[in-house]
Structures are given as C-alpha cells and as structure tokens.
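Thread: quick sanity check before group meeting

JM: Hey all, I'm pulling together slides for Thursday and realized we never actually wrote out the predicted structure for the chain we discussed last week. Dropping the sequence here so it's in one place. If anyone has concerns about the input, flag it before I start.
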Amino acid sequence: MLTSSYSMKSVSFQGIGLKTYSKWNVPSLASTEISRRKKSKRIKSNFFGIEVLDHLEWLNWDPGIESTKHLILKNVQFKTQKLKYSSPSTEFFTTLFPQSVVLGAGTSYSLPVTFCALEKKDYEDCIVFETKTGSFTIQLRASLPSHDVEIPDWLCIPPCGVYENSEVTFYLHNNSQLPTRFYFEVPSPFVLVPSNGILPPWDDYKIKVQFKPETPNIFDAIAICKFGDDKSEKYLKLEATAKYPHLLVSALNEESQTSSQEDTQSILNFGHVAVGSTVMKFMEIHNFSVVNSSFQIMHNQHPAPLNSEFVCEVSEGTVQASGRYQIPIMFTPQTVGTQSVDYFHVVRPNNSSTSVLKTIGSCKGTNYFQQDKAKLKQYKITNKMSYKAPDPLFVDLIGTCHTDQLTPAILKPRHIELYRTNMVRGLTFYPPDILSMMLQEGKLQLLADGTLILAPDQCCMIAEKSDNEDYPTAPILFPNIPSIVEYFDDGIQNDVTMFPPHVSVSERKLDFGKCLELSQINPLPLSMTNHTKGKVTVLWTSPSGSIFTVVPQTIDIPPLKSMAFRIYFTPDKLNMLYAAELECFAYYKVIRDYRLVDDRTFCPPWSVTVSVQANTFQPGHEHFIPKCVLESLEVVLPAVNEKGTIYKTLLLKNTGNMVITFSVEKQHESTIRIKPDVGFVLPQTHQILTVRGTPQNESLTKHTVLLHLNASEKFNQEIRLYSMVEKPQIILDGNGYLYFKPTCVGTLSERSYLIKNVCRMPLYFQWKISTANSRVLSVQPTFGIIQANEALTQTWSFYPQEQRKYFLKPYIFIWGVKGPHCPDLGKKIRLTLRVVGEGSKGRITAEKDHIHLGDILIGNIKSDDLVLVNNEPCSLNFELNVKQDITGLCDPDEVVKDPMAFKVKYHHGTIPARSKVCFRFTVRPVRRLRYTWTISSKILSAKVLEPDESKEGKPLCRVTADGVYPMIFISDARCLGSISGISKQQLWRLFSLDTLNEYLQRDPTESEQLYQVPTRHCMSRCPSVSTPVMVDFNFGAAPICADPSIVLLMIENKEMTPADWAFLFPKDQQLDVEYWAETGEFNPTELHEMRIDDNRLFTVEPKSGCLLPGQRETIQLTYRHEYTGTDRIPIVLKLSHGREILLNFIGITVPKDRCYIHFLVTHHKFAPVCISTSNPPKQIYELYNGGSVRVIYDIQLDSVKDVKEQNYNHPIFQCLNPRGEIQPGMTAYIEWIFSPLEARSYSVNVPIHILNGDSALVTFTGIGYDARVLGSSASFNDPSSYFGAPPIQRAPVLGQLMFLSEERISFGNVPVFTKSSRMIFLYNVSETEDISYKWYAMSVHITEVLNVSPVCGVLHPGDSTHCIVTLRTHKNPCFYDLDLICEVYSKQQLTQYQKELQDWEKEKERQEVEFTITERGLQDCQQPVFQRQCCKDMHRIYRKSQREASIMKYKTLPPIKEPKETWEGQHSEKPTPGTWPKPTPVKPFLLHLGVTARSHSMEEYHKNFPAEVSKHYILRNLISEPLSSSSQPGCKEKTCGKSENNSADCLLSASKEDWKLVTDIITTVLRCLQEDCHFQHVLVEGTAEPIPYYRQFWSEDAEELALKSNELAKSKDADASQVQESDNIQPIETKKEQISSIPVASDAGGDQEPDNTQTTDADIELTLTVTKHRDSVQDQDADNSQRNEGEGEEASTVADSSDDGLSQELENTQQTETEDELTSNIPRSSDGVQGQELDDAQPTEAEEDVNSMTSAVPDANQSLEQAGNETEEDWLTEEMQASLSAIRMEEQLARRRNLKRIPEFCDFLESILENTLQNILIEASRGEVVLTARPRVISLPPVTSRTTLEPFSIQDISPSKEELDRSIPTSELFAEVEFSNPESPEAPLSSD
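JM (edit): ok, ran it. Output follows.
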C-alpha cells in the first residue's frame, strides 16, 4: 500500500511532484516545536502613523492585587503629532490623568495602565486616542484562565489515488494555562492520529491527518475538536481529492496497451538466448494520472523445481504522478530448441486495475564450422554462436601416412561419403579386392555418384537369403540419424547400435584400480574381433615409453576371427592418478599398397578407443581434492511424452591444476543414462556429461545419481534429476462455454476465446466443426501450435442464417509436437466447446426524423449530431448514404453538379444492442438556397431483411439547412432638418431604398467576396470598386446655411445569422502610406472628395456595427449645406461575408435668393393604362422646391402637341396644370392624364422652365395594354404596392413626443363619387409634457379630397386620441398619393415662448417711448442694461464702416479660402453683449401621413371589381356638384377639416386688433339675441322636441297618439281660419287640385294668408302640399334615374343594404297590412328593377328614428290640408270622409318612402353607421371593449377614466405589418361586443 507522508514543517506542497494547487499552500501554524506564544512577538498596528498594540490583556491576576502594564505609542511618521486620550470608563482600569501627548518623529511614549479586580470574572474596557486625522481605540481585557485551543480553520490534503494514503500534519496549540483534554471527531475517509490526548499549558501537539479514500471523489469534511471540561468545540475544514489512477505496462520504449486480458497485452520479447545465459530487459509501468499510484507484480509461480525461466525481482513499488517506472526482468533458458512464455500481472491495490505483460524467449543451439589450415594440416572447431550444444558433433579427421617401404592409397573426403553409402548397403564388410572382382563380374554396379550397388538379380538372391536369415533389407541411402542418438546407441555402453561394427573390442573401459606396488602390476587382457569377410590389420598408436602400452602393437586378424591383446600399466610415481585413452586403427590388409587398390572400391580404416584408469595412492595418503565445478546438482529434464526420450547436458569443469577422474554410478539404467560415465578431466578443461532420460511416470519423479570424483567416496556428489511424462492438456476459457451476443441475421459477430496450454511441451491443436454448423460458426486459426504455458486467443465468428437460438458443439483436438521429446504424434485428445448464440432481425431508426440547422452563413461550417437508435437486442453494422437536394430559385441542371455539402466522418459503423450512436456531421452550403439531405441507412447483411428496402437503404431522417449571406434591409426612414418637409415616400425615392433593399437581398458576386471583411486594400484616394451595383443616396436640395439634412435609416436583420456592416468612406479603404510616399498631385475628383472629407459634409453615425438576428439599429446620415453646388462622394456599404454596394451620396446646396427645383426623377414612368378605358386616370408628377424663394414653373407642351398630332389628334399626354408656383420647401403636384390609343409604349420629352432658374428636360413614359390580350394578368394591384415605404414608423427620433399608429393609409381601389374613411390613433409617449397637434395640407388639391377630423387637439402625457381621415374621390379617375403634415408642439415650450415673447415685446415698447439722460462724463463707463435692437445695429454698422475705412488704405491679396457662411457659424454666433434678441418661435415636429388610393369610373369598377361594389357608398350629391378648379398648386398650406375648425384656426392666428374686433361683434350679437323674444320662444320649444334616432325612446302607442293629436289640432285651426263656400261645390279631384296650388309657409302660422299668385324660390322651398310634394318626388326620382343611369343602381343598392343591415325588428301590424298597397307605388329604375329594396321591407329602427325626426313636416302638411278642406267636410258624407282619410294616410306614407330615397337621408344614415363603428373602435382602443373574430363575450373591469392611459413606448406603437393587419378590425370582427358599463345599453355617439 502506497503511503505518502507530508510534514507541514519540512515539506511544502509546492515541492510535491503533482499538479500545483494554490489551495494547498496552507500556512504553517508553527515554525518550530517550541511554543510560539513564548517566542513570537506581539503584533502591533498602525493608527494614523502611531504604532501601538491593538489591545492589552491581563491573564494571570488575583483579586485585590494591582497589575500594571505599559502601552507604548510610537510616532512612525516624519512629522510631529499631538495626541489626546481619555481614561477608561470603569474603575478597574486606571491610567494617568488625561493630558496632551506630543510625539516627535520616531519618538515613543509609554502610558502605564493599572488593573485591579475585586472578584474573579472577565473585565473589558478601552482607551480612546484622538489625533488631528482621526481617533482609534485600544482594548483592555482581563480574563480568567479557561480552556482554549488553537487549530487551523482549513487544511487541504494532497490528492491521492483510491486505496492509497496521503498525509498532512498540523499543530494543535493550547492557548490557556490549564491542561486541556481534547479529542477529534472526523468522518471517513479522514483519520486523525492521535485522535485524543491531553495538551499541557501553552504547548503544541503535532496531529497527523491521514486521507484514505476508497472512491474517486472530492471530499469536503468538517473535523470537530472537542476540548475542556465543558466540551467546547472548534472546527477544522478538511479538503481532499481522490483520483482513480490506471497503470499501463509496455516494453521499454514501446507503446503501452490498454487490455488486461492475456494474449492481447504488451509483449516483451527476449529473442534467442543461449542456454544457461541470462538476459535482462525492462518493462515500463506508465502512470498517466495526477496522483502517485502503488502496484504489485503478480507472477504465476510453478511448483518447485519447475521454476519459470523468467524472473522479476521487483514485487511492488510506486509510480509517480505522470511518470513511468522501469522494472527489470531476467530470462535464463535451460532447454535448447524450446520457446518459453510467461505472464506478469501489474495489479493496483484492492485489484482496482490490472495490466498484463507477456514475456517471450527462445533457446537455440550452436552452429559450428571448421577451418582448414592447409599449411599445417590442422583443423580447428569454432563455436560460431558461443553456445554449448546438447547434441554431439562428429568430426571426420582423415590423413594418409607412408614410409619408405609402404605407400598406401591416399584417403580423400570423397571416400568417406562413398563409404557411408556403401556401408548402409552392406558392401563395406567385403574387402576391396572382392568388390573389384564382383564389379568386374557384373555382380555390382557403379552408380553415377561413385557408390556401389548390387545388380538386380543379386538383390533378389540376397533378399531371399535375408528372408531366410532374418537379415534386414539394407536401405539404399545413409539415414538421417540424430547425432545424439548415434552418440548414445553406439553399441558400446548398450547393446543397441545403429550399424553393426566392422571391428570391435571386448572392453572399452579398463581400470587397474589401486596399485600399491609398482613392480607387481598385472596386465589386463583385451580381445578384438574382425566382423568383416577380409583380413584386417590392427595398429595401436601408443608410442613407446608410454605408461599404458598394448601388446602386440600390430597384428593381422583373419576374417570373422578374434585376436587377444594385453594392456600393461607401468607407472613411474606413487600417489598419483593415471588415465589415458588407447587408440588403434584397423584396415583391410589389401589396401597397404596403393598399387593394389581400386579407387572405386576403396574402404577407409576404422578407429577404436579404449579408456584406462589407475592410481598409485598408498595407504594413508589422501586423494587429491578435486577442484571442479558442476553446473547444477538439480536438473529438471525437459518435457516429454510417454514414448519420448529427453537429453540434458551437464558441464563438469576442472578448475584446478590436477587431473580429475570421474565415474557415474550405474543406477536407473532403464530411465536415466549418463555418457560418458567414466573419464577424466584435464586441468583447466571441462567435460560435458550428457543425460538421457526416458520417463515412465506421469507425476514428477526424482532420480539421484552419484558422481565419484578422484576414485574417492568422500568426493562423491549427488545429482538430482527430475522427470515426468507430459500429456497434452489445455484449459478452455469459461469452463468450456462460449456465448455470442444476439446477432443480426446475415451479419457476422466475432468474439475472442482464450485457450491455454498448461503442459510443458508445445501442442498441436485443431478445431473440428460439423458441416451443418460450419455455415453459422467458424474459428481462426483452426490449426496451429500453442507453446508451453501460452494463452492463445481464438477468434470465433457467428453467422446466423435465421431468427432463432443456436446451440452448437465444436470440438478441439490436441496432440504433441513431434521432436526429441515426442518421437511420435501420440494419441489425440478431444475436448468439447459449447457455443450458444441467437440470430435476430435488426432495424435502425433516427432519434429525430427531421433536423433543421437553420440559417448557415455561406462558406462557413456548422456541425450537429445525428443520433441513430438501435432498439433491437443485436448489434447492427450499417452504412450511411446521403442524398442531397437543393431547392429554391435556381437552375436544377446547375445545382445538381455541386459537390456534396454534407460531410460525415464515418459512413459506416456498428450500433450496439439497445443503444444509441452519435455521428458528428458538418455541412457547408455554397449557395443561398434550401439544402435538404436525406440520410439513409443500410444494414450490412448478406440476407435481405426488408424486401422493400432500396439499394441506398431505408431513409432515416432529413437534414435541412438554409444557406444564407449576412443580409440587412432598410425597414424605415425618417428625415429631419432641411428636408423634414418631404414625405416618407419622397424620401424613399430619393434614397432609392426599394432598389437598395432589392440589391441587399441578392447574392454577392465573386468580386464582392474578394475582401470578405472591411479591408484597406487600395493605394489611391479613389479606391476601385469591386461591386457591379450602385445606388444613389440623394439628400435633396436646401439653401446654404440651412439646417443639415438628416436622414435616419433603420436597418434590420431578419436572418438568423449576425450581420456585420460598415460604411466605408474612400479614406477607410485607403492603405496608410508614409508621408514621403505622397505625390501631392491630386485630380479634381480627389480634391473634391478631400474637401468633403475635411469639412465633414457627409457623416454616417455609427459607421459600423453588428446586427444580431432580429435586431434593429438606426443609422443617422447627415449632409451639411456649407458649400454651394453639388457634392458627391462614393461610399461602400460592406456586409462582412456578404454584399458590397456602392452608395453614391449626393447633396445639393442652393445659393440664397436663387430659384431651384429639385427634380426627384428626370425619367418618369406613368402607371400602365388600358386602351379601352374611356376615362383614364389622372397621375401625379412631383416638383420639389429646394431653394429659399418661391419658384414659378412653366411646362412647355410643344412636344406633347406633337405626340397628339402623331396619334390622330388624340391627347396621349395631357398636363392639367402646366404653370404654377411653388413655395420654398414645398412640393407641387403636376397632374397628367395618360390616354393610350394602342397597346404599346409612349414617350415624350417635356422641358420644364423655371423662372430665374435652371430648366430641365423630363422624359415621360407610359405603356398602354390591351386587357383582352393580357386577360387575368392585367388585374389591378393595390395602389399601396406601388410604393415601398413602410406604413409603420420603426425608426425612433430623438425628441419625438407623438407617434402615429400608421404613417401611410391605403384606400385601395375605389370608385368615383365615394367617401371612404380610415381611423388612425395618435399617442403621446411623453410622461411629463402636454402636446398639441394640428393637421394641414401642402396643396389645395389635398383639401378637396381629404378631410381630417379633428384637425387639431391637445394630448396629455401618456394619452392617446384618434383622427378620422376621409377621402372623397373626384368625378374623374385619379391616382392619389397625398401627404398630410401634422405639426406637433410641446405645450411647455409654447408657453415658455409666449411668455418670453410678451416680455420682449413689453421691453421693446418701453424702449420705444423711454430715453435716458446721463452726464457726459459717465457716458463711456456706463452701459444700459438693454438697448434697442435697431440702435445696436446702427452702432455695429458704424463701427464696422469705421474699421473698414481705416483698413482700406492698404490692399491685401485675395483670401486663399473662399469666404462662406456656414450653418455652424450662423448658429454658433454669440449674441452681442447687452442686447436682448427676439425669442425664436418653437419649431414644430413634423409627422407625415401618406394617403394612397386609385379611383375608377363606375363602369370600370363594376367590370374589374364586381365583388367590391357593395363595400362602397356613393355620394350622389357629389355627382351634380362641380369641383373647385380655382386652386393652384404651390399655394399656401390649407387645413384639412371642417369650417368650424378652420375658423377656429384663423382666430388662433389672428392679431390683437382682430381679436378685439371679433369680440365686440360677438358681444353685440349675443346682447341682441338675449333681447329677442322670438329667439327665446324658439329655445323653449327646442327643449320640448323629441330626442331623435334612439330606438329605446320610441313606441307604437306614442306614435299613434301623436298622429291623432296632430290631426285634431289641425282640424280645429282650419275651422277657425278658413271661410266655407258651400255654393261652389266641386268634385274631390278639382278640390284637390285647387288646394294643391295654395302655397303654405313652412312654419304653418295660421294667421297668414297664402298667396296663390306670387311664389318665389324661397316660398317653394318653404311650402309643401300633398300634390306638389308628390310631383316633386316623382320629378326628383325621374331626374335621379336619368342621372344615375348605370350608377344610381349601385347607390340605391348600397342604401338598401345599409337599411337592411339596421332593420332587425318588424314594424307595427298596421304598416305590415298596407305593405301590398305600398309596393304598388314604388318607383322603378330605367331597367325595370326596383330602385330600393327598403320599400319592400318593413320599417326598421333607423326608419322609425328618422320618422320621429321628420314627423314635423307631414304633420304640417296635414294641418294645411285640413285647414283647406274644413269647410267642405261638413257637407261630406261619412263614406266620403273615410275615403278622404285613407287618401290622406296613403299620401303620408308615400311621402315618408320618398324621403328615404333622397341623398340627404342616405348620407345621414351612412354617417350614423360610420359614427357607430368609430365609437366602437375608439372604445376598443381605450380598452373598454374587446373586439374578437369569434362570437364571445369578454368582461373587462370598469375603466375609471378614459384619459388616464399608460404611456406608450416606441415599441408599442411600432407594430409589424402582420400585427397591423390583425389590429385593424373589419365588419366581420364585430360579431359580438359587450361594453364595460352594463348600465348603459348603448355607447353615446360622437358628432365629430
């Protein structure tokens, strides 16, 4: 376990090799272990330069005993300070009497303070010191001893890994004089050691905080320290962080792996290592975390003595944070030709993580070669690989010796090769002479390689013989026999031999034993046998004089005979060891002479050796101590199977100077053999002992072999040999079960499976899968070798074919690898693996069916995530396909070639079961179009899962994006200053804002994208322009020194991307060059632009900015009129990554007193007119007076007349007002009529002459079209669509107090002779000021057709009101584009101005009549407070003339700069001191209201707008009224309102004398009216008249009663006034005619006689009879029918529809009964259709109201008829009287019907409806009623006051167009209305 300890005294946290955390820098609580309280000094404070302790404390004190301490005050400033102090307030602390203390710089003062207590308790007091700069307080405290400890407030423990340990220490200090007991309570994983104890007084205790986390987390705990007898508590906050480290292992300087499974880990390869040698290599442990981590190395230990060949001596350690740790591993191989595998596991504490390292090494044998030194004829064997080999190496040493007498044949290496082959064939047992004879006889054949072979017939005979004699058949070639086998099976130590010997000896090892007497040593016998069929000669090579000799030395041995030899031992010394090897050579005697040898049958000699040993140690003499080293006394034999043979070598090395003899005790002959078993080792040489084992037991068996050294038992050494029979054995992972996860049908699922070889020999393995299962299951590799102790990973593949579960049983066969340890393959072992899997069908879906990325800036990249969902239990391999569609205004053939704008990093992948996979994709649109990408997925399966699936796969989701450029558009424009008089529409045209908005909506060109952001890129002052579009910003014209022309443009970003914009002046695009690079030569254009730039004639504020999506910003463009002439400057409007538009700023400054007309356009295009129009509309061309004087214009129409003559004298172009005048700042409306004859384009150039001004040539163009050819495409558009200015104000203006709900009203297409009304609302957004407003028009033409009510008014703060705009169309069709101006004044400013003006006028009157006489001497020094302005002017002129006269005598050069007057200079001129300038009038704020409409003739309107006819009301009284034509354009402004308002306005603007005159006249008139009796009588009668209109005041009974009372009263009056003439009785018809001719006054006076002979026009208007009225009605109907032919039908229809709309209840039953009779008298129109449907219907509420109002007229008529016929009714019968009454009733009803048909009645009814709707709208605007489109009732709380409304903000009155459309109610919206006041059944009507 890792333990890291950190002491806060010795080690700072900065020194730890981890990340540096500032919070670890814990302040040390004690620098030493000595008490800090005794050593540290008291800390002093500085108060205003006085250094003093902040408190005095008494600790050890007793009651009644005084204790004095001194308070030292030191002045640390450089100036002397004076102090005053006050005595303590209590009697327990005393000091000197208060006095002033003066402290010099650096001096001190000691103030003694004495404390004396009466009882044991705590005392507190203070001393206050005062200085000049302030006061401070020193606390005095006396406390009793109490338990108190001091601990830090916060400790941070260094971070560590989980299951690790980290420490930090702190000091617990006892701040009291009492021993204090303490103990800590701390939560896990923190531990405090010690956790309790007793702390001596004033002492410190070292506490260790241990942090032992078990989970990775940030720990924050509170440790509670309880101390003292009362268990007081103090808290210590502990903070620590635990990390989860992960260790990775790798070979040195190689990449680390992350897997912890065997065979998939890092590999440390030792390569080929010599047997017995040790090689060291290192593995690295990497710690990538920020904390230290401990580890342990786990190695699977094998049971002794089967130890691993890999050794790691490090078992545990610690890896530093972000560091690495190298661990050595040693490899010592023991068996040649084997490969060793082992595993090392690096484990963290608690097995939290494990990493595996695989070690591999192999042991390889030697590789020898021989060197041939020809000169010396010596051979040297060299070990090329420096390895010692277990297998023996046989070396053939050949040579030929001869004497003078004998010359044998020369032996060559070829003879050795031929001998081996002939030996295998059995021919070497025959002497060469016999072989030569057989070769001659043909019994032998000589092959091409020089070998001999028996003839075929001889082979058969030998085969038969061999069968009979049990001879084996000789092989044809020499077999490949292992040398180790040939070494052991030589027929000497055992009876087994590979080939029968030619010559053999009876003994190979002879031992003379211990020879005590040198002279009595008996020789040892030895016999040698010749096994060949020829005579053999034997020659021993021992020289004469040797200790060991053989007798005889040379002898011939006959064929198949033996000869005896004796070996003599003749030692020369006692107590010695003797050993030697005796060698002899045997050869066929026939080859002793080369002349007798046939080279084809030559046979080399044979060598035979005999080992002999002896010693001459005498009794009592010790044998030599053998100085030798045996390689190992414990040997583990390599693994071998039950029939195998193993070999092992041991190295016996003689390190001494004496010969060592050895012999091996013969034990376990059947299993263990050692060769050589007897021999000697020369000094400083070695002997290799080869062990041969044949294990028989499957368990580990121990064999003990004794090695005798130097023929003495005391030097015996025991060699322990271990062997066992290995059987093939492997372990299958998972107990032989392999589970596959559910797999999609047709797809492949792979899984690794581990098999481990647990035996010590390599094995073959092979998997067998049945044919049926091989379709769904496979493994790789199916065959191979697995080394000993190796874990091998197998890759299994599961390939289901259908949806079901699979249970499979493949087999594995294992067997040993053939080799020395395994001579045969052995028996195969079969193991079974059970495989479980499931096949299922999969389906992939997307989490979102549609992903909308929104707007993406073209050229930019936007990324998002595509989440694919797999709800199936199997993993799915899929492939994504993307299809791109580009839609919008584009060429499909062009966009289809665009590259794919959708990029995804991975187009294929795998989704695990029941999971989601997130793919990150990016899109990069290249066009401003809508991009749609359809993403489809295809499951990679060989089976068809869904038959209807396409090649691309199944669509998953759709991704859409809009490629956009940063775009802005101009949403509003306002004009101020000199151009405030022009309308918004004119401003819109001057600045070409429609064109600019159109350009802004287009895609930028490639040249515009050259510089994507504003960049200085040009060297010249006139930079080049890369944009192909240009827009003129025309500021209009104004006189010099006029107010600047200010235009406010509101730009808005409606896109979803931010837009960076900038206005770039020429200098903003110019590169900054050095001064020396300036040429100083400028062209006129550059000079002109430099003048504009230097004088800031054009300014833009702000010049740049960024608009977020949906954001608006107002830009102020200013032009200063300081130079006369035309100013132009190109300015580039640059949108970053967007458009680049050239704005040509144009401004005109007109000299004073110069006539100037600013032509808005010089090429005017009339609206298209149909050639079949009989009455073409009037169209307007505007002329604006931009100067300061009035202008008279004259339009020359000569070219118009030429066009007329060219078109058959048809007036194609007509100008209705070619001459006129225009006031300064006003606009003249030139009326034109364009009347085409043909469907083509017409054009005319018309010169416009300006009196005393510049003329211009204007081109007028018009297009005529044929409606029959164009068809429906020739439909009329809304006139508002011709104008691009928005109807709602969006750009706020500083100081604007009133806003309009709409700035442009469109009446649309209307017929002539109609009245249309619109309601607008005025809002006072100020919270403090009252404002007044007034409407006026710029021309009389506007007042003729427009009316505003009310014309003027006052708005209180936050209040609102309404205005009704009424349009009365002319009799001629016309285009209306009218502009009304509303002047807005602040009442506060008006009041202030009037007050100042009155004071100024009063002062002026006073100065005119007063004068002051002063003394002459005081004239120069005294100045009046105020002087007359005229006097001041005279004095100024006089002084100026005197100054000029004094200067004129000198002539000066003309000024360099042209003198000019500027607006700034004019407005910044300071008033002359002592003068009182006249107050300037308050300038009103102007609001423009644009009105647009187009009127059509009745015929044209019926034809083009049949559905809109019923929506308009025809004013029939306008048809006969002529329009005023006396008005001229350019006249003074006219108010648009009623005459009362006009008269009121005139009175407001009248002078004082006018006011006095009007007051006197009105006073006289009022006095006369008060004295007039008739006027008083009329007033009394007026109060008794019935209230009209209101339905609730009418009833049937009251109506009948009124009729009867009127008839009765009239009959009585007629009886009293008329004379009866009974003798002149005539028929009724005659009476009627006579009666009808009698005129009656309208007042029905009764005492006046009617005059039948003289009737004036006035009398006709005031007299009414029954017959006359009927005739007049019929005449009027006839006139109306003639006048309204084709038009009157609409008027009547409108009136009828209005009446029908109001009639909701039936009349009384009397009028219903007479309906049939009344319908017979209804007049009809010329086409036979009833003129009005009102007569057929029953009387409505409105009719009853009108009847009640007009009842006076028929009642008067009835009284006249009764008065005329009273005398006749006496003699009439009752039947005649009834008929007369019926006739009278019929005439009365007819008069009522005719009254409803007159225009006045229809106008009155229309006004009632209009007034009702207006009242509803007004109440809705005030919140008193809610208008909805659905029939529902919404109750609102009662409104206390209609005027106390919340103030409006600019945003509240600037709705969008859609909001405006929703806010304007139509007739369909008034489905149901409920007023807020339930007590009032109807809202009161306003007469306004």
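AS: nice. The two ends are 99 Å apart (CA to CA). The longest strand covers residues 232-243.
JM: adding both to the slides.
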